[in-house]
Amino acid sequence: MSVRLRIIAAMQQIAVEQQVKLPPLHDELSLHETGFDSLGFAILVARLEDDLGVDPFTLADDAAFPLTIGDFVRAYENVPA
Description:
There is one protein chain. The protein is built from four helices and no strands. By secondary structure, the protein is mainly alpha-helical. The chain has a single domain (about 5-75), classed as Orthogonal Bundle (Non-ribosomal Peptide Synthetase Peptidyl Carrier Protein, Chain A), CATH 1.10.1200. The chain is globular.
């Protein structure tokens, strides 16, 4: 399964658990518009770290939190090996 699909699947699972109604997810969707709160994003990043073995937001000193779904996915896809 691709990184993108793993992220989307994790978001969908967390939305069910947190009772968040997700809009259709696409690259241009603002993370704010997902309906996730700070706890939802914390859970997402923690689960992705467990699943993918990396947290791109702690690897770089100058890492900025992404603004859109596409930015978020690219942060994980572009982690140096």
